[in-house]
User: Fold this.
Amino acid sequence: MIDGWVADGFEGVRDAFARNFAERAEVGAAVSAYVDGAAVVDLWGGVADRDSGRPWEQDAVVPVFSSTKGVTAVCANLAIERGLLDPDATVASYWPEFAAAGKDAISVRQVMSHQAGLPLVEGEFSLDDALAWKPIVDAIAAQAPLWPPGTQHGYHMRTYGWLVGELIRRVTGRTIGRFLQEEIAGPVGVDFWIGLPEELEPRVARLVPPVNDLGAALAQFGESLLLARVFSNPGGHFNYDDMWNTRQLHACELPSSNGIGDARGLARLYASLVGDGVDGRRVLQPETIAAATSEQVRGADAVIMAETVFGLGFMLGRSFGVANPPNCFGHAGAGGSLSFADPDRRVGFGYVMNDLRFDQTGDPRSESLVRALYDALG
Assistant:
């Protein structure tokens, strides 16, 4: 059931990975880790399709939901490093239409740290509209913020992707999916896509929706609960269900949510951000990482009603994993995926899976793997 390998001394990670299947009913998953630019863990196992029994092969990829936001943050910080974006410039200086409805002073920094007051898209949209890009970014540009920007922060669950993605499109002339492939994923050798090419569809693991319908549970609170309004937005079309197993959801570009990749690629990407990088290549320079991981906001999140901590697009420290090292940065994804870099120990880590679970106390699958990795590091 378990394939792959670990370097000497990292056998505990393999044991923890096996226990996730034996004791926690893992369906299909992969975990990878790099230390000092070299792979030390590369494991996969289980089934990519629970119904057919198709095994999880070495080249399997899977949607990772908001772990995509960390990859989007890498793209945006690369644009900052190259002088294409200034975090303290106004969004409207790059995207003039965005100045409407009192948004003229919102900064790139506020957008990247979930302070812009735009956690949802107002209006009625078909699913085709919601996935077509222009109808959504035009709507965001026209609407007013829900709170005075900069006065609080609230998780921009899906709008983060359109906001940051449109900024990247404006300053590079490329969609974020293309920018990612041409500037980062291709050169570094990372299997990760925002907008999956059709020929790669056979590699995609089939997601297992959560047992409980979160959308229906939140809908009971109605308009009084901001999270309920944000959760299925825009258009009430979004839930953690079988829609994410469709070609339509894989093909579009949702830079907040629909990234598809493997644990190996995520670990390699994050390893390329710390130490000497990977194969002598560092995607972001140390000073860029220092600025990107400087704490921008900490405290009660207006949307998810729990403490969140953000830098410039990245989640920080233990705010997205109780076993995380305190100085790490990265992002977690709905259902359980986790990826991060640890600049102190020069670690890149990635965990992906197809069985979506939601536990308010954290996901014990990824937690056990992170603990085992750091036990091995000593």
